[in-house]
Specification:
Strand order of the largest sheet: 6-7-5-15-16-17-14-19-18
GO molecular function: flavin adenine dinucleotide binding; L-pipecolate oxidase activity; proline dehydrogenase activity; sarcosine oxidase activity
Radius of gyration: 24 Å
Family: Belongs to the MSOX/MTOX family.
Structural class: alpha+beta
CATH class of the largest domain: Alpha Beta
CATH architecture of the largest domain: 2-Layer Sandwich
Pfam family, one: DAO
Number of strands: 21
Keywords: FAD, Flavoprotein, Oxidoreductase
Cofactor: FAD
Shape: globular
Low-confidence stretches: 385-394
């Protein structure tokens, strides 16, 4: 029973495609039937290779690849994945090294956590980073004030230079640290490359079609396969649901994942500006107090701005001892979208020449752009002293000041599909024996694990089918047992079915 003779994987995103790749490399599946299903035609007749869906959740110019986590298991996984990104997964500029500025608001990183401070999230990540970084604390640069952050970026202090600098470690201020073991990946190009690798290996059959529902045995005790919207049926011994934002719908479990969209915005830099930022070793900027991050310059010389997911914000506030309710149940509101082929996908939002959102019926987009502008002005904005004689003390940086005030040139929707705890669900559905496996809940932060997540999923698929010989290499953390517990299926959601 440990090796299924046939598999259907629904979804060619991070979880599904990486699993197909892992299966293609495993000799145990050399003679097994493996079908990878997705509603997007990656290999259309006029394409020379694979073309990613430009509106999919994994379609992105610059996805953050970081190993800095306040949660040990994910920090270890990210460190393992980082080594692969710096190998063939990241070749041809699919991965770019860029240091990371990780920040929050509160007391000094050198002091214990205090209630109501978002910097606690950073302190926890900093402690883990010190353990994982060769040289420990001495190798990590701490920025213990907003002025130090602005100085690192090349900007003036946030206060006029003639005022005393606040050095009180207990005072509330923007504080953080620099991690040099980070970067970003061209997500669209990475998905295209991995898809071509799967095709090259020749073990997986790729099928284009939208899955409408699961197919069950007569006694409803097993899943036999999937049914498409056109009525076509595919059967297999094992069905894997890795359908991103559609997973909850296909499984009929409304609260398995929180599905909603946020807005991502871009600012276009000139060639000279992008060159200058790279010369300064410009970092990825993450402010967990605002719940905003900025990545780039990317290959198109753009800076990208995004929001933390709701679950990500809850995670930050939990470290600050602030309890936040879960998002309102949007399941009923989502029902009307399930028949819309665009649901769960991103899309362009119209902006004017001045960077304003043209759709004024969309206040969420307006709020997002306002958040990004405040984030920019805090770090890159002028001090307001231009034109005032400050006896040479004002070191205004016109490059940064101009970027801080520049209109957004592009806005798009990005879909999230994450669990309340931000832990993935990678486990068998308990109601159907070993015929239905679920791999979902990763839209918020799974992409960085693309090089290794398929191996972990496959190991759990086999281990839970009774193959006790399956294990991860010695010294690799977290262990398979830890992952099994961390990513278990939430059986409590099935109560009352």
């Amino acid at each position: 029973m440990s090796i299924p003779n046939s598999l259907i994987i629904v979804g060619s995103g991070v979880f599904g495609l990486s699993l197909a790749y892992a299966l293609s490399l495993d000799d145990q599946f050399a003679d097994k039937k493996i079908i990878l299903v997705d509603r997007w035609n990656f290999e259309s007749s006029n394409a020379t290779g694979s073309v990613h869906n430009p509106a999919a959740a994994n379609a992105d110019t610059s996805r953050v690849i970081r190993r800095d986590y306040p949660h040990g298991p994910y920090a270890s996984l990210a460190l393992e994945a980082m080594k692969r990104w710096r190998g063939k997964f990241g070749e041809n500029n699919r991965y770019v090294n860029q240091r990371l500025l990780f920040s929050g608001v509160g007391s000094s990183l050198t002091t214990p956590p205090k209630e109501l401070e978002t910097v606690n999230y950073i302190k926890k990540a900093y402690a883990i980073s010190c353990e994982m970084t060769p040289g420990g604390r001495d190798a990590i640069q701490v920025l213990d004030s907003l002025d130090e952050v602005r100085a690192l970026l090349g900007n003036t202090p946030s206060q006029p230079p003639y005022l005393p600098v606040n050095k009180d470690p207990s005072a509330r201020d923007l504080r953080g640290y620099i991690s040099n073991d980070c970067g970003w990946a061209d997500a669209g190009a990475s998905i295209e490359w991995l898809r071509q690798e799967v095709i090259r290996l020749g073990r997986v059959e790729c099928v284009v079609g939208q899955v409408e529902s699961l197919v069950y045995s007569d006694d409803q005790q097993e899943v036999k396969g999937v049914k498409f919207v056109d009525g076509k049926v595919l059967t297999a011994e094992l069905t894997v649901i890795a359908a991103g934002a559609r997973s909850s719908h296909l499984l009929g479990i409304p609260k398995l994942c929180d599905v909603y969209s946020e807005f991502v915005a871009y600012i276009q830099l000139t060639e000279e500006e992008a060159h200058e930022l790279r010369r300064r070793q410009w970092p990825i900027l993450v402010n967990c107090h605002r719940g905003v991050f900025a990545v780039g310059p990317d290959h198109d010389n753009c800076l990208k701005f995004g929001h933390f997911s709701y679950s990500g914000i809850v995670d930050v506030l939990r470290e600050a001892s602030i309890q936040v309710p879960t998002r309102p149940d949007g399941w009923e509101a989502q029902q009307k979208y399930w028949t819309d082929p665009r649901f769960g996908f991103g899309g362009e939002v119209k902006v004017s020449a001045l960077g304003d959102v043209d759709d004024y019926e969309n206040p969420a987009a307006q709020r997002a752009l306002a958040d990004y502008r405040l984030f920019l002005l805090e770090l890159l904005g002028p001090t307001g002293l231009q034109g005032v004689d400050t006896l040479g003390l004002d070191q205004s940086d016109n490059v940064l000041n101009n970027i801080a005030n520049r209109p957004f040139t592009r806005v798009r929707k990005c879909w999230y599909n994450d669990t309340p705890a931000l832990d993935f669900v990678v486990d068998y559905h308990p109601s159907y024996g070993k015929s239905l496996f679920v791999a979902t809940g990763g839209c918020d932060h799974a992409f960085k694990f693309l090089p290794i997540i398929g191996e972990k999923i496959l190991a759990l698929v086999l281990r839970k089918r009774g193959n006790t010989s399956v294990s991860l290499p010695a010294g690799v953390e977290p262990s398979l047992e830890e992952l099994s517990e961390l990513w278990r299926f939430p059986v409590e959601l099935l109560q009352g079915e």
